[in-house]
Hints:
The complex is a heterotrimer. Chain A is mostly helical.
Amino acid sequence: MNDKMKIFNTYHPLGLFIYFASAIVITMFMINPVMLTIAIISGIAFVLTLTDIRTFLKNLAYEIPFFILIALTNPLFSHNGVTPLFFLNGNAVTLEAVLYGLDMGIMILGVIYWCKCYSIIVDSEKFIYLFGKAIPKLSLVLSMALKFVPVFKRQYRKISDAQKCFGYYATDSYFDKIRNALRVFSCLITWSLESSIDTSVAMKAKGYGLKGRTHFHNFRFHIRDLFLIAVTLFMDIVVFTGIGTDIIDFRFYPKITQINLNAESIAVYGAFIILMFMPAFLEIKEKIKWKYYVERI
Amino acid sequence: MEILRGENLSFKYAGGQGNAISDVSFRINEGELIVVMGESGCGKTTLLKLIKKEMIPAGEKIGSIYYKQTKIEDMDERTAVADIGFVMQKVEAQIVTDKVYHELAFVLESLSYKTEEIRIKVGEMASYFGIQGLFRKKTDELSGGEKQLLNLASVMVTSPKILILDEPTSQLDPIAASDFIATLKKLNKELGLTIILVEHRLEEVFSIADRIMVMEKGRIVSFDTPSNTGKFLSGHKMLAGAPKAVVLYKEMKGIGGECPVNVKEGREYILKNFDNKIRSVKEYDIKAEASNGTGDIEENAIELKNVWFRYHKEEKDILRGINLTVKRGEVFTLLGGNGTGKSTTLSIISGLRKHYRGKVFINGRKIKDFKRNELYRENLSLLPQDPITVFVKSDVYSDYADILKAHEIKNNIEERINEVAEMLGISKLLHKHPYDLSGGEQQKCAIGKILLIMPKIILLDEPTKGIDGCGKEELINIVKLLKDKGITVVIVTHDVEFAADVSDSCGLLFDGEILAKASPKEFFARNNFYTTAVNRMTRDIYENVITLKELVWIIKENMKNQKIKI
Amino acid sequence: MDYQRKYEKSENKNIKKISIIKYIICVIIIPTVIFIGTKLFDGKKYAFLTAVVVLLSCVPFIISFEKGKNSTEKMVILAVMIALSVFGRYCFSMIPHFKPITAITVITGIYMGGEMGFLCGALAAVLSNFIFGQGPWTPFQMLAWGMTGLIAGLLSRYLKKYMVALAAYGAVSGIIYSMIMDIWSAMWQDGVFNIKRYVACIISGIPTTATYIVSNIIFLLILARPVGRKLERVKLKADIIEKD
């Protein structure tokens, strides 16, 4: 997905997992619009460092209607709030519910962006490393399945071509297309199950099933990984304290409350900004460093 | 020093009839490179599996194989995994994981090595095999040759004492196959590794072997040096696939003592023993041509005019203005290196891919004018590289019935099927599962399926891939049979020998163009490297000798001549 | 037949072995999580809590596979079935939501037992989300597909015998899947389970659910028995190749 070398990608999976878990979970819990604004802006910034702007805009075309849908439907289900805008079928559509819908829309979009970044950074390789020790068998199954998918893709093409040349395809109709796809898929199932025998023989020949199997990996834990985890956890503590002690409490119902803007809440917002903008910040820092480095050469 | 010994070994598969291996005894010394040969079904694969503890099949076994005085089945599990390495035929299926480094580490993980130890071993192995650049890649991104090299390397990480390979190159193209065999030779010479190799690319491995084991019907009939094996074979019926020099030796009834086993020795053999007063085979050619006239047919079965093709808009052209005409009833072979676009050309002719410039005519009609499947109804059919992709049903007979149904042929189904089956000699295979057939059998059955729908043109994509010598000879006969039926055959192959034996005309695909379509005689005679073993053997001795038949003919003519003089 | 019996046997053993862990999770951990969660989150934001509970409910199956004795072939076949169900999405991409993932999961459940069926569905969800994006919806998909596989395993005797039962189960599994996924859709907006919203989600999802039902029935009726035969054949072949 991203061929370009990204600095965040080179961190140890454990640190990355903790980081993303924090970012996504905190975003999911937020109601406070300031926090959610931070979450969505940082999410967009992060996505932009990972993908090009074209795919971003293309996805936006799907995301905006989705956002509007969430924002608009909320008042239909929720009639809480004290400021009615108008009545629909005898039910009040309130200002609070509309704003709450918008707020939730931002939250969901934020979570989607952060999940997107997670999917790009914590790829299958890192996932298998993370869970390899806890679930060695299933992570091997996943690794095998990951190997099979592209192999199947190629074989499907081969089978489909071969059968086309035998004149199996009769018409262009929808029904026929499905029938052909089903036949080729069925051939693929046969092929894949038959070749699974060879795979299991190869595994046994390579000693699979002996006791005390270890788990090789290609990741090293550096000081900077420790640093990442430490910063993440510290910011987590600050933010969760903020949530727990109502410093950044915000409510839509029954009446929209004021956004807290005292020293404590600003500290929490600051911590959240540091947490959420860390990847984008690291990426930009890296770019500047390289530019400087290249100029020196 | 002896490393492996078989003692009166017999083996019968569970549920099988008769012994797969009967009363086999042998000794193999450390550092030997052993080639095992024999027709398919002679028990060579079974023998190899009996050496690898984890792969011993279910069945009855009498006698034993000893690895350094220990019975294979009594070996310690970890030693058995580490000391005896096995590389199988199926390149893709024996790769287990999705990453190259994980694949290399797999066996070491099984043997409980720590990450740091694995890293060192794997690093060393990747460097030795020159695949360090692939280390972090996905296994799926590798080429066929690289994949098999990975399979070899991932077995070699435990530094096994014996390496067993079961037809490791049969799914590779010839260049990758030669590289692979060169690697094996290097392992044997540089590390003194004991190698047991089943291989049908005998022209290449015959002379690098220390000893060759010949198997027949579950028995070892000869186990000797290449030269002596050549001698043995010359007095024996099984010769398909043996090096041409050995076949020559047989045809000459063993004149001149030692049996030559490769091109170099073959040349010396001819120079030492035979005259070359008569240098030209023109007379023979005239005779041959009279019997095999395609001459006066003028109808074009396939016509390509200035055809250009690329896979994607942004990519470079694969075909750059190909021109080609194939006459009705002609057998045309398209040769060329890897990735030159041979298979692509076939896919254009077969309508699977669309060219973006130029014209293609099939049986005189523009290919674009054929609607949906008209092209494949009695016009044209393609046998893909991997014949297994052709089968839909769980036995050959129902598969045949199914294709007839798809082509709306409703009468005489049984007769049609039996006719084709008899013609190809596959009647016995009709009720088998396609996946239970050998590579050669699968191919014959796939050709049978094509014959049922009676196309005017048959395209064969690399038909000799994965087929042993015997299968190749059968294939040559089948192509001749197709030709007799008036079917136009276009073959894409790397196999020079096969092309020389089978085609009416050959072309070389290079840089997106077909260079000089010509008769095999002209085509190969002017090539110095890309030509048949017989041609290389006789270069500057005789003129334009391409096939073994011609060579035998000219040598005999010379002998006659000599006798007359005397 | 023999093959089936062997799988069932090994399954029985597994179930005994890990039943304790299962009880611990069901009786202690899940209620604890819910209790702490409700206390902590004070009546809102149940979405995350539900996701955690759902994920936890997959754990017993994962543990029982990890601790149980499974042959190498069984593992490879599981990987093949997972890859097939994920890849199947591409083959039939001409119709939206027409995908064999449920059918393959159900077939795995029927012919290889409920545990395998559950894992096939759950891991297929994980794997396909490597391609389409992971998110808090992953646990729900794991559970939804896993359950269809598990129940198929429990009903395998009937599903093998009667085509009608198979078709009916195809329909039911489409509904189960939609209903579980709609819990998530309804919850994750404001974190509270709102029955009205849930009903709205189900109603607005009817066309999709209908496609699921139709595709499940088609795939199951066409694929189930042939794939069953193929599985039996592979098992037989593997038995000959390996010594047991």
